[in-house]
Amino acid sequence: MTNTDATHVVKDMPMSYDKVKTLMDEETYKWHHDTHYAGYVNKRNEIEKELKTVDKSKANANYSVLRSLKLEETWNANGQILHEVYWATMGGDGKYDQNLNIIKRITEDFGSVDAFKAELLAVGKAGRGWATLVFDMFSDGKLRCALYDFHNQGGIAGSLPLMAIDIFEHAYYHKYGPDRAGYLSALLDNIDWKKVEEKYNKYSKYTQ
Ligand code: FE
Q1: CA 122 to ligand 1 centroid distance, Å
Q2: Ligand 1 center–CA 168 separation, angstroms
Q3: What is the set of domains in the chain, with CATH numbers?
Q4: Which of 26, 72, 83, 120 gets the most CB atoms within 10 Å of its CB?
Q5: What 3-state class would DSSP assign to 198?
Q6: Is residue 207 pLDDT above 80, yes or no?
Q7: Phi, psi dihedral angles at 134 (to 5 degrees)
Q8: At a CB cut-off of 8 Å and minimum separation 6, what does 24 contact?
Q9: pLDDT tens digits, residue range 106-140?
Q10: Cβ neighbourhood burial of 33 (10 Å; 0-12, 13-18, 19+)
Q11: Helix (H, G, I), strand (E, B) or coil at 43
């Protein structure tokens, strides 16, 4: 870890490169973490620091420093959070036990695991930023695939991300070129379902 004095900390990659080599080349493993992800964390810290002293009396929806800071706060905060979710469930072999709670719940909400995968792949092709599996705890407690066009545009308010697929080109282009579908498919084959299960079991108790 780095920048330990700051509020938000750049966390180490939770898996070695060897575990994700079907998804990305070694340069992307390093660039994506050290430049993109770390950039969001560091800018989030910088913005939070500036927010402490910004002149709130000049707040204005056409232009104001406060407006810019608050907009970029969501870009960088979501950039941090979604990347951490993205990497957290990688490094597996895509296989799962039918008795996992998350698998039972996916089957209930999507019809089957294959139907869920087809929807997530389609959302991954339709979006420009992120394709996610979320637990929509505020609406009805169901699982949904949520699309983000940017880190801070899209999603479902208050939903908890269980799985996130980065579909910005920096995530796959260096290895897959324009074959986004190939990358998405490789990613689903690399999911560690036990980690998705851990997240689901932790969050599902918050259902309204
Ligand atoms: Fe990214």
Answers
A1: 19
A2: 6
A3: 24-88 (1.10.287.990), 101-207 (3.55.40.20)
A4: 83
A5: helix
A6: no
A7: -125, 155
A8: 32, 171, 172, 174, 175
A9: 999 999 999 999 999 999 999 999 999 999 999 99
A10: middle
A11: helix
